[in-house]
Amino acid sequence: MKRLEINAEVSNLAAVSAFVDEQLEAADCSMKSQMQIDLAIEEIFVNIASYAYAPGKGKAVISVDISEDRTASIIFEDSGVPYDPLAKEDPDITLSAQERTVGGLGIFMVKKSMDDMKYEYSEGKNILTLVKKL
Amino acid sequence: MTVTKTEQNGCFSFEIEGRVDTITAPELEKEIRDCTDKAESIVLDFAKVEYISSAGLRVLLFAHKTMAKKGGLTIKNVNSDIVEIFEVTGFSDILNIQ
Fold it and tell me: Cys bridge to B48: A81, B17, B20, B87, which one at CB 3.0-4.6 A?
């Protein structure tokens, strides 16, 4: 399990993606899975950076584990306000362009592209786990 | 991300290369916003786009809505991974994709 502790700031997105991509590349992950995981990282990390500690600042911890059966688990932890992104209702993707907004679309994209997601709030921490078979 | 802009008879074409994400999407939005008054239509060439996140989709939705009153927004040369993102999010039903 590799672990990165970093300031939860949008400007650190590239560093977080690079950290996870490095583990994925070592596991010979397909470009498609890597893109889906990058997308998930962006949506989750930007959410944490934007809302978890607002208006203050704080840390996020990202851990990556790739099991022998090539299942990647990516865990995001923060000590910000309790927030379960999985509880959010899915957006209505059948609305016309004029009625559409992009709210909630990010987490919806993540749900659609990962094999499993788990959220728990434990000891003052939001812990979100993304699972993707490589 | 790099954006190359060309104009011909009121049609503004943007050739986009790289990643359209939280960091780069505002730059694309600004480029598009700068020409929506003058443009009759807008074409986005996605041949070299590797990745788009919800921040990028937000810009596409803005451009689509803005140009809907005129000659519209067209997105061309989209690769299969990005087509899948458009499909999952319902954007393939909204956007004019060639």
Answer: B17
